[in-house]
Design brief:
With 287 residues, this protein is of the alpha/beta class. The chain is 41% helix and 15% strand. It has two domains: 123 residues, Nitrogenase molybdenum iron protein domain (Rossmann fold), CATH 3.40.50; 120 residues, 3-Layer(aba) Sandwich (Rossmann fold), CATH 3.40.50.1980.
Length: 287
């Protein structure tokens, strides 16, 4: 009887210890995910989440990433498991992750969970989200650096804004995310960066963060400056009516290469770097 009681007490102690150290994180779906310990093996299916893990000093915990995750350079050597919307489920399972990080828009969460994997869905869309997601990943990883990382980002954006001459203030900017054309609106994190720099996004918040525009809308808005990726830059003047826009007539156009566009269109730890790129554009090309 004494042996049985001792065994029960030992079991209760073990279970109590397990409960005490269990880690619970509620993701952007409102789903609470419970882990027995901070994850040591992570698969990330969104570049901004990959960059956030690394910004918090946990790159070494990544064992697989999506095909678009390319920063920092060390993640390029990791196994690629497809895209966020079309991940290779079998490849992810084979990596034996403790947790899979993905966007709330990904359709893979339910399939991965049905196979017994832990999934945390997070999707930053604006500055507040970037800060919140850093905090959430810090909580998940059980590392303390998230507030300091955010303070550095915020300070970097402020420095970029302070570097601008008064003449560029209130410049009206059209930022094309990709062909379509899809634009960055004032309610997007890109629009927030433009506002922090003291310039005006020609696409109002009411149209949504990344609306597909009728090209005539841009002609009517007649921006002072255009920011565009090199893939979309070719043929701008050939679009109906665009040759007469002041930005194109005056060559007030900033063309960003693929690496720069990665920085600019990802809502993550490199927002301050994006602000510096935009500030340089404004100094060089604003009328």
């Amino acid at each position: 009887m004494k042996k049985l009681l001792a065994l029960v007490l030992a079991l209760c102690t073990l279970l109590g210890s397990h409960v005490a150290f269990a880690l619970q994180v509620t993701d952007d779906r409102g789903v609470t995910v419970t882990l027995a310990h901070p994850p040591r093996r992570i698969v990330s299916l969104l570049p901004s989440l990959t960059e956030s893990v690394c910004a918090l000093g946990a790159c070494a915990r990544l064992v697989g990433v999506d095909r678009y995750s390319n920063y920092p350079s060390s993640v390029r050597a990791l196994p690629q498991v497809g895209g966020g919307l079309d991940p290779n489920i079998e490849a992810i399972v084979a990596l034996r992750p403790d947790v899979v990080l993905l966007a709330t828009s990904s359709r893979a969460a339910q399939r991965l969970e049905s196979l017994g994997l832990k999934v945390v869905a997070l999707e930053p869309r604006n500055y507040a989200d970037v800060r919140r997601v850093l905090d959430k990943i810090g909580e998940l990883l059980q590392v303390p650096g998230a507030p300091a990382v955010w303070r550095a980002i915020d300070a970097g954006v402020a420095v970029a804004a302070q570097s601008l001459p008064a003449r560029v203030r209130h410049t009206r900017v059209y930022f094309e995310v990709n062909g379509g054309p899809y634009a960055a609106g004032a309610s997007s994190f890109i629009g927030e960066t433009l506002a922090r720099l003291g310039v005006q996004d020609i696409v109002p918040a009411a149209l949504g963060p990344f609306p597909k525009l009728n090209p005539e809308y841009v002609v009517r808005a007649d921006p002072d400056l255009i920011m565009v990726g090199e893939r979309s830059a070719q043929g701008l003047a050939q679009r109906p009516g665009w040759a007469d826009m002041r930005a194109i007539r005056g060559q007030h156009i900033c063309v960003f290469n693929a690496q720069q566009m990665d920085v600019l269109i990802r809502p993550g730890p490199r927002i301050a770097q994006a602000a510096r790129l935009m500030a340089q554009c404004l100094r060089d090309k604003a009328p």
